[in-house]
Input
Amino acid sequence: MGSTWGHTFRISTFGESHGGAIGVSVEGCPPRLALSPEHVQVDLDRRRPGQSRLTTQRDEADRVQILSGTFEGRTLGTPIGMLIPNTDARPEAYEHLRDVYRPSHADYVTEAKYGIRNWQGGGRASARETAARVAGGAVARRLLAEACGVEVVAWVAQVHEIRAATDSSTVEREAVEASPVRCGDPEAAETMSTAITEARRRGDSLGGVVACVARGVPPGLGDPVFDKLEADLAKALLSLPAAKGFEIGSGFAGTTMTGIEHNDPFVPGPDGRPRTLSNHSGGVQGGISNGEDIVVRVAFKPTATIASEQRTVDRSGQAVDLAARGRHDPCVLPRAVPMVEAMVCLVLADHWLRQQTVVVLAGED
Output
């Protein structure tokens, strides 16, 4: 099972939704980076369940424990081990799903692949696994901030057919965190909140789009031809539960533009390096960062587990009707914001470290 991400900066996650704990091992982090549990906890608190009426009511504190890799508040350069205990697991609540495959979930395909599955909340397929990614991403965020001043901010850009008027060039985390929806547009946030609440009341769910901007990314990150920066961003973000689409820059909208309209003209920048007048490229050209803001969008499907009755089959192949019980998000978007930020940070940290090798080798010429 693919539970490891990255080349130079790598994370490996472990744990199941209703097991004893979720955890992550971070390798490749340089020594002497200031890192405390508080640095990690701030992002885990944004991802944790039970934080508002718009999310699952599973009540997990998600208190992180750093088991290894730090000393006196700084990294040692050795593997960083972090553990997040599951304190509100209720595996018995999923007994009715032992022999039933939930529609559009990973139940059937997991059993088809491995011949066995953990039916207690979905096991590794549960979004519970992303707590470990967010913990690893918090370390990557610290590295990027100290090494090159990179800032990564994500927000809910769309819920169902409701779109936020949030500008990627000016959006700030404080505005995003001002509402449980996390969209940065107060008027849209209120409408989104109402729509999510109504969907839950109907026993239904909603999908949407999370957008993300990375500011201060230096030019030169990305490794063509198969490890282009946007290719790694796409793989990382599409590995998130419920993610179904990825765009960077103009994305699919660029197909309706001409070359003249879409090209980003270069002009002299105040720091002496070229800058672009527009950013249809989304900060990446030829698979390599160009120094502009990296802007990406991720489409998330409606939550698969819903309370309304649906047609499905059991392990014997018999048709059954299922109205799923348990605790689930009526919309994954608000909690997906820190997950998207974590994966973007992990990709950028990995490519920043890889680029340091290129710079060192070039300097020896």
